[in-house]
Design goal:
By secondary structure, this protein is of the alpha+beta class. It has a single domain (about 1-75), classed as Alpha-Beta Plaits (2-Layer Sandwich). It is built from two helices and four strands, in the order E-H-E-E-H-E. The protein has helices at about 15-30, 60-65, and strands spanning about 1-10, 35-45, 50-55, 75. It has a four-stranded antiparallel beta sheet with strand order 2-3-1-4, with helices on one face. A hairpin with a 4-residue loop joins strand 2 (about 35-45) and strand 3. The protein is globular, with a radius of gyration of 12 Å. The two termini are about 15 Å apart. The model has no long low-confidence stretch (mean pLDDT about 95).
């Protein structure tokens, strides 16, 4: 399966609890699309959130995020990793 990094903008002020809940929501819905969300990071000051995931396609990642109420603004394939 391919790796993806998605980016969410406009989440200024997100708290650790909100980030945790959003990640838990994604984990609860990921099986429907054959996706696995590995980790999430946030910068509350800029409102940017990043998620690392694995799945069959960017579209599958987006469908999970849409279902859980926080669609990604950008989804980038990450074909190389060290």
């Amino acid at each position: 399966m391919a790796k993806f990094m998605d980016v969410h903008h406009d989440m200024k002020g997100i708290t650790a609890e909100q980030l945790h809940q959003a990640h838990q929501d994604d984990l609860a819905a990921e099986g429907e699309e054959g996706v696995h969300f590995e980790a999430a990071w946030a910068d509350p000051e800029s409102g940017t959130v990043y998620c690392l995931s694995e799945g069959p396609s960017a579209a599958a990642i987006q469908r999970v995020h849409e279902r859980t109420g926080h669609p990604a603004d950008e989804i980038h394939p990450v074909p190389l990793r060290v």
